[in-house]
UniProtKB/TrEMBL annotation:
InterPro entries: Homeodomain-like_sf, HTH-type_TetR-like_transc_reg, HTH_TetR, MT1864/Rv1816-like_C, Tet_transcr_reg_TetR-rel_C_sf
Stored PROSITE patterns: HTH_TETR_2
Protein name: TetR/AcrR family transcriptional regulator
UniProt key word DNA repair: no
Keyword Hydrolase: no
Organism: Pengzhenrongella sicca
Keywords: DNA-binding, Transcription, Transcription regulation
DNA-binding interval(s): 28-47
PANTHER family, per the entry: HTH-TYPE TRANSCRIPTIONAL REGULATOR RUTR, TRANSCRIPTIONAL REGULATORY PROTEIN
A molecular function (GO) term: transcription cis-regulatory region binding
Lineage: Bacteria, Bacillati, Actinomycetota, Actinomycetes, Micrococcales
Length: 200
């Protein structure tokens, strides 16, 4: 018996659940329709296309991640804020792999502007205020944090740290200590770049 009472919110929520269980790349109109026991055509009343559906999952996930990070940051500053931000980010990525993958999707400018992407940027810069970085150092630091957090969770989710006796959580904590030290001792401008080696 087909389920009734479909709404855009229910369709998007179902797609987000499927993203976590089956992978964001496997979210399709047919898969969501099967979840509700309806024909594909029934969904087009609520979402116009697969692109719109996936974008909606990304918007939902960005908001969830921003809420989780924001709650973790409340009342914290300096190293405590850095660790809280990082742990909330990692926790969301590991608990909701499909949703997290959707947050890396390139959104249409109008959609991105209305999403929580701006909140993420603002919160990242907020934790850096405790390190008193000026531009362009602050932007470089924002990029460093994103590259570290995103790269780490991708490798962790992909089993990249499964070998050896050192736990990924222990290495994560060490990485956060290194980031805190780096941000606290940010090198001044004018230090010569490392020499480039000629390719072999």
């Amino acid at each position: 018996m087909a389920r009734v009472g479909l709404t855009p919110a229910r369709v998007i929520a179902a797609a987000a659940e499927l993203a976590d269980t089956d992978g964001f790349e496997n979210v399709s109109m047919s898969a969501v329709a099967r979840h509700f026991g309806v024909k594909d055509a029934s969904l087009y009343t609520h979402v116009r296309s697969l692109q719109e559906l996936r974008s909606a999952v990304a918007v939902l996930s960005l908001a969830e991640l921003a809420d989780q990070v924001g709650a973790a940051l409340a009342g914290r500053a300096g190293r405590d804020a850095l660790v809280a931000f990082a742990n909330a980010y990692r926790s969301y990525a590991l608990d909701h792999p499909g949703r997290y993958a959707s947050t890396q999707m390139t959104l249409e400018p109008a959609v991105a502007e209305q999403s929580a992407a701006g909140r993420h940027a603002a919160m990242t810069r907020a934790i850096l205020r405790g390190y008193a970085l000026s531009e362009p150092d602050e932007t470089d630091a924002v990029r460093l944090l994103h590259a570290t957090f995103h790269g780490y969770v991708l490798l962790e989710r992909g089993g990249g740290f499964s070998r050896g006796t050192r736990s990924s959580s222990a290495s994560w904590e060490r990485a956060l200590n290194v980031l805190h030290f780096t941000l606290s001792h940010w090198p001044p401008a004018g230090i010569p770049s490392l020499p480039r080696k000629d390719p072999l």
